[in-house]
Amino acid sequence: MSGPVSARYYKRFMRLVEKWPKDSYKNPQRDFAVQLREQVKLSFEKGSEAISNIDTIQCEKRLQSLQEMVEGQHLKDFPHQYKTGMFGLEAEMLHLMTTDEMRENVGFREKPLTFFERLFGRKNKIPPVALPQTPATQSSNTEEKTEQKTQESAFPRKT
Fold this sequence. Notes:
The chain is an all-alpha fold. The chain has 2 domains: 1-78, no CATH class; 81-122, no CATH class. It contains 9 helices and no strands. Helix 1 (3-19) packs antiparallel against helix 2 (32-43) and helix 1 (3-19) packs parallel to helix 4. It comes from Plectus sambesii. Pfam families: UQCC2_CBP6 (PF20180). Residues 126-159 are annotated as: Disordered.
């Protein structure tokens, strides 16, 4: 696809993407409109292999599909009487349930805690406890320390 043709398709895609409703309840990382806009920009970047490999017929099909979704064509062709979702909640309540604040309240985070982070706390490093030394154990400990140093030099620890 040549430069002027791809520029024309880029403008057409961006006009459609701008019409897509933004969800004010979600942050940009979870908003479909923002993600769609970013994907269109990435697809039409200068120097992108995707620009040279896309044929005009495929672009037209995708534009037509996006146009139908933006206009709600399938909802007009196949109307329904449903006012609630599968949980019996209305659309506004479902939007409120998927807000970032509500997701945080029920335990969804950006990066979930691992098992050990939940068990021991996030990044809490507990220093080892030093045991008091007695004269009898000091001599045996020095032998253990020299043996331990030779093992460490052969097998260094990862920190």
